[in-house]
Amino acid sequence: MATNGTLKLQENGTYRGEFHSLKLSFPLHMIPNDDIKSEKSPTYLIYSGKTRLGAAWENEAAGTGVVYYTVALKDPSFGTMYLKLFQDSQDGGTFNIVFD
């Protein structure tokens, strides 16, 4: 599975990293959603600089209990991208970004 970037856990509980594809490359900052109103609310909000690009929802793999995140990023320059974040097996504080 090709990795399109990483997000690393910061001391303040947020994640920082970069997304890369053949045509795009930009920084990402994932912060906890402090306004969760229902079980359908995203777990994290995702920004590039000051621009909110999307959100991430926590999921658990059936059978293994492994936590991963489903991500939707939207911007007029690229439309909507659906991604997944999987925890790096070597570094528990890092999530790898892959296309859904």
Structure write-up:
The chain is mainly beta and 100 residues long. The chain has one domain (5-99). Helix content is 0%, strand content 58%. The chain is built from no helices and 8 strands. The chain has strands spanning 5-9, 15-20, 25-32, 44-48, 51-60, 67-75, 79-87, 94-99. An 8-stranded antiparallel beta barrel has the order 1-2-3-4-5-6-7-8. β1 and β2 (15-20) form a beta hairpin. The protein is globular and about 35 Å long. The model has no long low-confidence stretch (mean pLDDT 93).
The pLDDT mean sits at 93
What structural class should be given to the helix and strand makeup? mainly beta
DSSP summary, beta strand count: 8
Beta-strand portion reads over 45%
End-to-end separation in angstroms reads 10 Å
Helix share bin: under 10%
Low-confidence stretches: none
Number of helices: 0
| Total of domains | 1
- Describe the sheet with the most strands: 8 strands, antiparallel, barrel
Radius of gyration, in Å, reads 13 Å
Give the overall shape: globular
| Strand order within the widest beta sheet | 1-2-3-4-5-6-7-8
Q: Sketch the topology as an H/E string, one letter per element.
A: EEEEEEEE
